[in-house]
């Protein structure tokens, strides 16, 4: 099945919206760290799927004193991760649709990755098999509700499927006995910036077309021009403290869906 690539690299953050995205990613890792401290044994084993350049894997390893495996399908990305964080994390290249692990991990983290896969069930089946009995999955993905009109295909060139909360919960329940469906919301300024960007992308078909057909390097240059910039009025530096976990009715209005699952 098809799956795509898209990664957050700290050294490439230049605009306010990229700064916000990086803070959201770090928030997810920090939340997983808190879960691990409360639920997992000391020196737990953790698999970080879609690890990118490994900054999040390193956060897990250093703050939990755990054995962490960072996993990504791109060879160049894994090489960069080993160069930066290889002293504290083991990095492996492989296909998330065919995970080569068998009941080896106490926790799996999978952040902003499942939307890049045509059939999320393939990834989740492998994750369930990679976890030890009693192991925990922590997963985030963008919330389809505020990003897309009903029936609209993802405008992000790398996203193959974006999820509603109920849809994701039902999918996760096929592989895990317990699913806690939560969400991630931001401060008013963070949400205004992100929702404004998404509204512009959803409204202007030209922007969506550009994102799909242009090479990534050219697209990054174009989106920094005046026409395509959605964050030109913000100079705010965002941190993980600008985000929080929500439950219940607030999940529907969250920026990201956040699921904690147990076998």
Radius of gyration: 18 Å
Count of the separate structural domains:
1
Mean pLDDT: 88
Q: What form results from the Cα inertia axes?
A: globular
Strand content: 15-25%
Strand order, largest beta sheet: 3-2-1-4-5-8-6-7
Specify the oligomeric state: single chain
Number of strands: 8
The CATH homologous superfamily is termed Vaccinia Virus protein VP39
Alpha carbon gap, first and last residue: 25 Å
- Per the CATH scheme, the topology name is Rossmann fold
The top-level CATH class is Alpha Beta
Q: Low-confidence spans: pLDDT under 50, at least 5 residues? A: 226-233
Label the CATH architecture.
3-Layer(aba) Sandwich
- Number of helical elements: 9
Percentage of residues assigned to helices = 25-40%
Q: Biggest β-sheet: count, sense, barrel?
A: 8 strands, mixed
Q: How do the helices and strands follow one another from N- to C-terminus? A: HEHEHEEHEHHEHHHEE
Going by helix content, strand content and strand pairing, the class is: alpha/beta
């Amino acid at each position: 099945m098809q799956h795509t690539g898209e990664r957050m690299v700290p050294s490439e953050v230049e605009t306010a919206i990229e700064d916000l995205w990086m803070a959201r990613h770090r928030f997810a890792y920090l939340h997983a760290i808190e879960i691990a401290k409360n639920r997992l044994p000391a020196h737990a084993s953790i698999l970080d799927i879609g690890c990118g350049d490994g900054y999040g894997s390193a956060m897990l390893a250093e703050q939990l004193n755990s054995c962490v495996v960072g996993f990504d399908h791109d060879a160049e990305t894994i090489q960069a991760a080993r160069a930066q964080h290889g002293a504290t994390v083991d990095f492996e290249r492989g296909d998330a649709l065919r995970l080569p692990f068998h009941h080896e991990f106490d926790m799996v983290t999978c952040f902003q990755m499942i939307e890049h896969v045509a059939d999320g069930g393939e990834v989740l089946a492998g994750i369930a098999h990679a976890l030890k009995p009693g192991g925990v999955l922590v997963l985030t993905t963008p919330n389809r509700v505020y990003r897309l009109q009903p029936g609209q295909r993802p405008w992000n060139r790398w996203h193959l499927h974006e999820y509603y909360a109920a849809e994701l919960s039902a999918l996760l329940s096929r592989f895990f006995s317990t699913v806690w469906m939560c969400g991630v919301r931001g401060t008013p300024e963070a949400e205004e910036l992100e929702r404004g960007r998404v509204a512009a992308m959803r409204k202007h078909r030209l922007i969506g077309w550009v994102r799909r057909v242009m090479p990534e390097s050219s697209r990054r240059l174009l989106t920094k021009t005046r026409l395509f910039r959605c964050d030109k009025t913000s100079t705010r530096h965002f941190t993980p403290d600008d985000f929080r976990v929500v439950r219940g009715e607030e999940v529907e209005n969250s920026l990201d869906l956040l699921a904690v699952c147990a076998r």
